[in-house]
Amino acid sequence: MNQQFADWLRGFVPPSGTVNRFERMRSCAGALFGLLMAGLLTHLTVGESLGAAWLIAPMGASSVLLFAVPASPLAQPWSIIGGNISAAIIGVTCGKLVSDPLIGAALAGSLAIGGMFWLRCLHPPSGAVALTAVLGGPAIHAMGYHFVLMPVAVNSILLLAAALFYNNATGRRYPHGIPAEVTSRHDTGDVLPTSRLGFSADDLDAVLKTYNEVIDISREDLQTILTQTEMLGYQRRFGAITCAAVMSRDVVSAEFGTTLDEAWALMREHHLTALPIIDRARRVIGIVTKTDFLMHADLDRHMDIGSKLAGFIRRSHRDHSEKPEVVGQIMSTNVILASVDKPVVELVPAMSDAGLHQLPVIDEERRLVGILTQSDLIAALYESSLQKV
Question: Assuming Cys at both sites, which of 113, 171, 272, 361 could form a disulfide with 267, CB separation 3.0 to 4.6 Å?
Fold first, then answer.
């Protein structure tokens, strides 16, 4: 019984946090910056007329969300603006219609929560805004619905502006919007390869619906955390094989000024689908694929593929040709690269979902040292699984 009671008491103590000292200091400094800027700008806007109402108390709670947990759905721009304004309107209305302050405050808090659920702008500090409108005293009551605009709306907008600037300036993405959905590169109805195994987004949605509670994290962030956890578990089970262990080191490459016919000959001679483009220091500046050749040759408008491609590759022997003459003119510069010490399991989404057949591997100075193909990746994962059997 004593042990059970001790375990019960330990449930009141939260576990240690996972954020480091820098993140804690960043959050504290953000709240200082945000509240100070919001208060000063409100003072400059309205002057001395409102006194202590330059910055209402619920803004302190809003600052916790906006600067300490900016990824929370409760801290997003619509949450603070919509939540605080709707709660202020409800609070002022309850204060005018209900004579008993206790009943009015309770009713305002309850209706504010219902309104925020309906408007999809749940923001915990907004409950305090609703109570402030009812229990704020004669000065707040005298403002009437002006309280909604000033100080609630003005404080909320200024604090949000400070959060937008500070979070992005200190390396935190804000607002934490929903990322664009990745679809099949073949424009078919199949789901992405990595979604065919393990849990899917539909699985997560079904579990969250069964859970039936508000969680202080977005579904997208939760899915990312779970996926990365799966990846770490895989690395623990099968070992962290790095690119350096399985990559091809004798890499065929070209430079910006390599002519189209020379590059095409290299790709055909070595049976390649892609050719990394490097500068004189062997740093990767782009990549050219067979798709680049076919696309720039404009083959979709011509039936004679062979002659059209040959005409595109052949040199024009003119100084000012209207068509590309070197691979640097048709290469893709947005190249996904892998470092030599990167675990190959982390490259599975890029090579399966994005359909990449090969990735250039670089060292610390971005110099080309190898290339990792889909065959290398499959062989590494297969060999690793055999070792664990």
Answer: 272
Q: Is the dihedral of CA 168, 171, 174, 178 positive or negative?
A: positive
**Block residue for tokens 């670089």:** 362
Rounded mean pLDDT, 91-96: 95
Kind of pairing between the strands at 254-255 and 274-278: parallel
From residue 71, how far is each of 3, 14, 106, 113, 310 by CA, in Å?
38, 20, 30, 21, 53
- Per-residue pLDDT tens digits for 279-302: 999 999 999 988 887 776 665 554
Does the bond joining 70 to the residue before it have cis omega, within 30 degrees of 0?
no
Dist. CA 101–CA 186, nearest whole Å = 63
Q: Is the pTM for the entire model greater than 0.70?
A: no
* H helix or E strand, kind and range, residue 268: helix 260-269
Left, alpha or beta for 366 (phi > 0: left; psi -120 to 50: alpha)? Answer: left
Single-letter amino acid code for the residue at 16: S
Q: Count the Cβ atoms, other than its own, within 10 Å of residue 102.
A: 10
The CA distances from residue 232 to 127, 201, 226, 238, 379, in Å, are: 40, 19, 10, 10, 20
Distance between the two ends of the chain, CA-based, in angstroms?
A: 45
